[in-house]
Task: structure prediction
Amino acid sequence: MFIALCLLIFLPVYAYSGQIGKMAPSFHFVGSNGNAVTLEQFKGKVVFLAFWAPWCIPCKEELPELEKLYQMYGKDGFEVIAISIESSDKNIAAFLKKVPLSVHFLIDKKNEVSDAYRVSSLPTGFIIGRDGMIKFQHRGFDKESPAVYEKEVVELLKQY
Result:
């Protein structure tokens, strides 16, 4: 019983923290405009991969902050890819109508990408360096998050 309890508590933390320093799992989507989108397209850039859903309240707070970061640092090689685990195009469209954003939006209808990144809660974010390696991971969102994100993004943009 004790071992099962320890595994239940610590295994998710271990799985989550073990991704830093590893190559970001590749993905391939067909975007809403019909164009293919792959992670490899963004090699050489710093990428914030944000997993979200329209019903997730912290996600609704995080995405506008990521948009601000994108507006500040996009010209320097920073990209944001927001991957929704919500499969309803209607729900996503309704959200984007209320909160217009210019970052890349993709829908993970089969949860293949969220599974590859071991996403277990929302929002979950991964900051990927220019080399394609996962440099930082974040779960949740609070008032300190935007400053932390900016610090990490700026640090990575200065590399190379």
